[in-house]
Amino acid sequence: MANQSIINAKADAVEKLAQKMSESKSYFLCEYAGLTVSQFEELRAELRKENCLVKVATNNTITRASAKLGHEELNKTEGPSCIVFSNNESVDGPKIVATFAKKNKKLKMKDGVVDGQYCTDAEIKAVAQLPSRQGLLAMLAGGLYQPLQQLAFGLNMIANPESKESTEAGAEAQA
Protein backbone atom coordinates (compact mmCIF):
# COMPACT_ATOMS: atom_id res chain seq x y z
CA MET A 1 0.00 0.00 0.00
CA ALA A 2 2.85 2.39 0.76
CA ASN A 3 4.19 2.04 -2.77
CA GLN A 4 0.90 3.21 -4.29
CA SER A 5 0.84 6.31 -2.06
CA ILE A 6 4.40 7.17 -3.12
CA ILE A 7 3.49 6.72 -6.78
CA ASN A 8 0.43 8.96 -6.32
CA ALA A 9 2.52 11.63 -4.55
CA LYS A 10 5.06 11.63 -7.39
CA ALA A 11 2.33 11.80 -10.03
CA ASP A 12 0.80 14.73 -8.15
CA ALA A 13 4.20 16.52 -8.05
CA VAL A 14 4.57 16.04 -11.83
CA GLU A 15 1.05 17.38 -12.40
CA LYS A 16 1.64 20.48 -10.23
CA LEU A 17 4.95 21.22 -11.95
CA ALA A 18 3.41 20.80 -15.40
CA GLN A 19 0.59 23.17 -14.40
CA LYS A 20 3.09 25.79 -13.18
CA MET A 21 5.07 25.41 -16.43
CA SER A 22 1.98 25.95 -18.55
CA GLU A 23 0.97 29.07 -16.58
CA SER A 24 4.38 30.77 -16.82
CA LYS A 25 5.54 33.11 -19.58
CA SER A 26 8.92 31.39 -19.54
CA TYR A 27 10.80 28.81 -17.53
CA PHE A 28 14.29 27.42 -17.69
CA LEU A 29 16.59 25.13 -15.78
CA CYS A 30 19.62 26.06 -13.71
CA GLU A 31 22.32 23.97 -12.14
CA TYR A 32 22.92 25.26 -8.65
CA ALA A 33 25.52 22.80 -7.29
CA GLY A 34 28.04 24.64 -5.12
CA LEU A 35 25.79 27.53 -4.08
CA THR A 36 25.42 28.05 -0.38
CA VAL A 37 22.00 28.23 1.21
CA SER A 38 22.39 31.98 1.76
CA GLN A 39 23.33 32.51 -1.89
CA PHE A 40 20.33 30.48 -3.04
CA GLU A 41 18.05 32.46 -0.73
CA GLU A 42 19.52 35.69 -2.14
CA LEU A 43 18.67 34.46 -5.65
CA ARG A 44 15.17 33.52 -4.51
CA ALA A 45 14.66 37.00 -3.01
CA GLU A 46 15.86 38.73 -6.20
CA LEU A 47 13.50 36.63 -8.31
CA ARG A 48 10.58 37.27 -5.97
CA LYS A 49 10.99 41.05 -6.47
CA GLU A 50 10.05 40.59 -10.17
CA ASN A 51 7.27 38.05 -9.53
CA CYS A 52 9.48 35.14 -10.55
CA LEU A 53 9.80 31.84 -8.75
CA VAL A 54 12.55 29.27 -8.34
CA LYS A 55 11.64 25.70 -7.51
CA VAL A 56 13.92 22.78 -6.79
CA ALA A 57 12.66 19.53 -8.30
CA THR A 58 14.08 16.14 -9.12
CA ASN A 59 15.32 15.62 -12.65
CA ASN A 60 12.76 12.87 -13.18
CA THR A 61 9.91 15.18 -12.15
CA ILE A 62 11.16 17.92 -14.49
CA THR A 63 11.53 15.45 -17.36
CA ARG A 64 8.04 14.02 -16.92
CA ALA A 65 6.38 17.43 -16.50
CA SER A 66 8.08 18.89 -19.58
CA ALA A 67 7.24 15.78 -21.64
CA LYS A 68 3.61 16.21 -20.57
CA LEU A 69 3.67 19.67 -22.18
CA GLY A 70 5.39 18.44 -25.34
CA HIS A 71 8.89 19.70 -24.56
CA GLU A 72 10.82 16.44 -24.55
CA GLU A 73 14.02 18.43 -25.21
CA LEU A 74 14.23 19.29 -21.51
CA ASN A 75 14.95 15.68 -20.60
CA LYS A 76 18.73 16.25 -20.61
CA THR A 77 18.78 17.31 -16.97
CA GLU A 78 21.79 16.14 -14.99
CA GLY A 79 22.97 17.10 -11.53
CA PRO A 80 20.97 19.13 -9.04
CA SER A 81 18.58 21.29 -11.03
CA CYS A 82 16.16 24.02 -10.18
CA ILE A 83 13.60 25.58 -12.44
CA VAL A 84 12.99 29.34 -12.70
CA PHE A 85 9.54 30.60 -13.68
CA SER A 86 8.85 34.10 -15.07
CA ASN A 87 5.28 35.18 -14.46
CA ASN A 88 5.13 38.81 -15.66
CA GLU A 89 7.50 39.05 -18.61
CA SER A 90 9.48 36.34 -20.37
CA VAL A 91 12.80 38.13 -19.90
CA ASP A 92 12.57 38.79 -16.15
CA GLY A 93 13.82 35.44 -14.88
CA PRO A 94 16.69 35.08 -17.36
CA LYS A 95 17.86 38.66 -16.67
CA ILE A 96 17.95 38.17 -12.92
CA VAL A 97 19.68 34.79 -13.09
CA ALA A 98 22.23 36.03 -15.65
CA THR A 99 23.10 38.97 -13.39
CA PHE A 100 23.30 36.70 -10.36
CA ALA A 101 25.44 34.15 -12.26
CA LYS A 102 28.04 36.84 -13.01
CA LYS A 103 28.67 37.16 -9.26
CA ASN A 104 28.23 33.45 -8.49
CA LYS A 105 30.02 31.36 -11.11
CA LYS A 106 28.62 28.08 -9.76
CA LEU A 107 25.12 28.90 -11.00
CA LYS A 108 24.75 27.71 -14.59
CA MET A 109 21.82 28.47 -16.86
CA LYS A 110 20.49 25.57 -18.91
CA ASP A 111 17.81 25.22 -21.55
CA GLY A 112 14.16 26.15 -21.14
CA VAL A 113 11.00 27.41 -22.79
CA VAL A 114 10.29 31.06 -23.63
CA ASP A 115 6.80 31.98 -24.85
CA GLY A 116 6.09 28.34 -25.70
CA GLN A 117 9.28 27.86 -27.75
CA TYR A 118 12.14 25.60 -26.66
CA CYS A 119 15.43 27.49 -26.18
CA THR A 120 18.94 26.19 -25.66
CA ASP A 121 21.14 27.58 -22.91
CA ALA A 122 22.76 30.00 -25.38
CA GLU A 123 19.34 31.24 -26.47
CA ILE A 124 18.27 31.71 -22.84
CA LYS A 125 21.40 33.81 -22.28
CA ALA A 126 20.49 35.85 -25.38
CA VAL A 127 16.96 36.37 -24.03
CA ALA A 128 18.55 37.72 -20.84
CA GLN A 129 20.16 40.50 -22.92
CA LEU A 130 16.83 41.68 -24.36
CA PRO A 131 15.14 44.76 -22.91
CA SER A 132 11.84 44.34 -21.13
CA ARG A 133 8.52 45.09 -22.81
CA GLN A 134 8.40 48.53 -21.20
CA GLY A 135 11.94 49.24 -22.39
CA LEU A 136 10.99 48.28 -25.94
CA LEU A 137 7.89 50.49 -25.78
CA ALA A 138 10.02 53.41 -24.55
CA MET A 139 12.42 52.89 -27.48
CA LEU A 140 9.48 52.82 -29.89
CA ALA A 141 8.01 55.99 -28.40
CA GLY A 142 11.39 57.72 -28.66
CA GLY A 143 11.73 56.63 -32.28
CA LEU A 144 8.28 57.97 -33.10
CA TYR A 145 8.82 61.21 -31.17
CA GLN A 146 12.13 62.18 -32.78
CA PRO A 147 10.84 62.92 -36.33
CA LEU A 148 7.98 64.97 -34.88
CA GLN A 149 10.41 66.94 -32.76
CA GLN A 150 12.61 67.65 -35.78
CA LEU A 151 9.59 68.68 -37.84
CA ALA A 152 8.43 71.08 -35.12
CA PHE A 153 11.92 72.55 -34.84
CA GLY A 154 12.11 73.01 -38.64
CA LEU A 155 8.68 74.64 -38.84
CA ASN A 156 9.59 76.93 -35.97
CA MET A 157 12.73 78.01 -37.82
CA ILE A 158 10.68 78.79 -40.95
CA ALA A 159 8.04 80.69 -38.98
CA ASN A 160 10.59 82.67 -36.94
CA PRO A 161 13.68 83.39 -39.08
CA GLU A 162 15.15 85.66 -36.39
CA SER A 163 15.26 82.72 -33.95
CA LYS A 164 17.37 80.87 -36.55
CA GLU A 165 20.00 83.60 -36.36
CA SER A 166 20.05 83.49 -32.56
CA THR A 167 20.27 79.69 -32.64
CA GLU A 168 23.20 79.85 -35.07
CA ALA A 169 24.92 82.47 -32.92
CA GLY A 170 24.44 80.28 -29.84
CA ALA A 171 25.86 77.27 -31.67
CA GLU A 172 28.92 79.28 -32.77
CA ALA A 173 29.44 80.53 -29.21
CA GLN A 174 29.43 76.96 -27.89
CA ALA A 175 31.97 75.83 -30.50
Describe this protein's structure.
By secondary structure, the protein is α+β, with helices and mostly antiparallel strands. Helices cover 61% and strands 15% of the residues. It contains 7 helices and 5 strands. It has helices at 2-23, 37-49, 59-68, 92-103, 121-129, 133-159, 161-174; strands at residues 26-31, 52-56, 81-86, 108-114, 117-119. It has a 5-stranded antiparallel sheet. Helix 1 (2-23) crosses helix 3 (59-68), helix 4 (92-103) crosses helix 5 (121-129) and helix 6 packs across helix 7. The longest helix is centred in the last third of the chain and has 27 residues, at 133-159. It is elongated and about 90 Å long.
User: What would the principal axes of the Cα set say about the shape?
Assistant: elongated
Instruction: State the secondary-structure class.
Output: alpha+beta
Strand line-up in the sheet with most strands = 2-3-1-4-5
What's the end-to-end separation, in Å? 88 Å
Tell me the strand percentage band.
15-25%
What is the count of helical runs?
A: 7
In total, the number of strands is: 5
- Helix percent reads 55-70%
